[in-house]
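Annotated sample (chain length 69).
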Amino acid sequence: MATRVKAEVIEKYRKDNKLTVEKFCNKCSISKQTYYRLMHGNLNINALTLIKIYNATRLLCSEILEVDD
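Output written by the structure step:
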């Protein structure tokens, strides 16, 4: 079972709320390096990073993660 982050959902949220990458990262308390790893599909990220994004954006887990069976 593979899981991937839906980068397009995070990017859409960022653009809809008129946030720069820097402002989004500050809001979520993540580094820009972590943000770019997410955007490029790198799944080698800490679960805490996803929790920070969930809390800051109020997006649901099911909206951000996609599970392939």
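Annotation: The chain has a mean pLDDT of 87.
Annotation: Residues 47-57 form the longest helix (11 residues).
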